[in-house]
Amino acid sequence: MSHLYRSAIHAKVAKLPAMPPPQIGSVEEEDEENEAADGLGSLPSSLGSGSRSGSTSVRRQHHQHPPNPAYSPVSASSYFEHAIQVSVPPSNLDVRVYYTAPKTGDGAVMVCHHGAGYSGLSFACLAREVGLLSRGECGVLAIDCRGHGKTTRISDDDDNGAEIETEDLAIGILTDDLVNLISTVYPDPNSAPSLLLVGHSLGGSVSVRACPLLQERKYRITGVGVLDVVEEFTLEALPMMHSLLDARPDGFNSPEEAVEWHVMTHAIRNVESARVSIPGIIIPNPDPSSGPAYLWRTPLRLTAPYWSSWFTGLSSKFLLTRTARLLVLAGAERLDKELMIGQMQGKFQLVVLANVGHMVHEDDPGRLAEVLVEFWRRNERVVIGVKKVGEL
């Protein structure tokens, strides 16, 4: 839920800043094509078979101004090698996957699951940094989960994605979706690369729950990394979410305006990352005469029935995960009691990043990549008899 989560934790319920006035700026390079027309190519055949290449109420009108080219969309082709829809029949989904393969036969793959309302493209800049730091030894597989991004139901003909009004976003369903996707992409656990599960906010909860299910299927899990979510404080913040959602714009008049709003309100502090990720979380308004030209792809208010279940039990499940554990937080947030005891017992690695917001992977992808690659290297090549981080 982006910066809304962190704002709620700090009880800052005041309305978000209004759309900033147009700024004069230019970009040094010609604008790249929108990700919607990316053409990143197909996933290798060894990664499973690829298949087929809601609206919100409008409460406020936006003053239009010319799109600022400094916030124009940027293609994902500079960050991932491949993009494709992967057919996952057990989940009745065609899942959008962004993938960069490891360059060595014994390499690992970082499987990245985004938070509510976002998409796999929120990991674009991180994926590039991981590839550079690991020298290609660690690949990245980022997904659009059910009801988000370009993931659609197999039975749907709607190119704009699954209908969030009828989509089941229960935590168990989302967990099964991730497990089913990995089983489709890597059908043979014995020949599959080792996997490092990384999830942001909701994605962290899904990754933690998916880990034991994948281990039951004999996949090698190097570790689980959870990005900026703590159960107790998240649950305490949920009652404030509707007030914060009321303060958001209903939509935008251009993709540039959407990017600009996220940057100027510090929802995302990295302009480059916002230019890649934000165009994918809005869709054209089917009736532009009724309001802004672009609406949110995933109306977060309609996911409210699932909020509590997404995070309840997260701390205990994280601490019981039988692999290396990493928790990355933005700022010096307090741990809840269960995590505090677990940290004192050495059950997981805790890293606090400075000068970032809730979107830690977008705000400072370089620093987070250093943390993740170091975590992966330390736990991937553990000497026999030496325990991984968090193992007792």
Characterize the structure shown:
This is Protein phosphatase methylesterase 1. Demethylates proteins that have been reversibly carboxymethylated. Its EC number is 3.1.1.-. Residues 27-36 have a biased composition (Acidic residues). It is a single chain. With 392 residues, this protein is α/β, with parallel strands linked by helices. The chain has one domain (2-380): Rossmann fold (3-Layer(aba) Sandwich). It is 30% helix and 16% strand. It is built from 13 helices and 12 strands. Strands 1, 2, 3, 4, 5, 6, 7, 11 and 12 form a 9-stranded mixed sheet that branches. Strands 8-10-9 form a 3-stranded antiparallel sheet. A hairpin with a 4-residue loop joins strand 1 (82-88) and strand 2 (93-100). The longest helix is centred in the last third of the chain and has 16 residues, at 365-380. The radius of gyration is 20 Å and the shape is globular. The model is unreliable at 9-46, 48-61 and 157-165 (pLDDT under 50).
> How much helix, percentage-wise, in residues?
25-40%
Strand content of the residues, in percent?
A: 15-25%
Q: How many domains in all? A: 1
Largest beta-sheet characterization = 9 strands, mixed
CATH homologous superfamily identity: Alpha/Beta hydrolase fold, catalytic domain
- Low-confidence segments, given as residue ranges, are 9-46, 48-61, 157-165
Give a quick rundown of the structure.
This protein has 392 residues and is an alpha/beta fold.
Give the key terms.
alpha/beta; Rossmann fold; 3-stranded antiparallel beta sheet; 12 strands; PPase_methylesterase_euk; 9-stranded mixed beta sheet; 392 residues
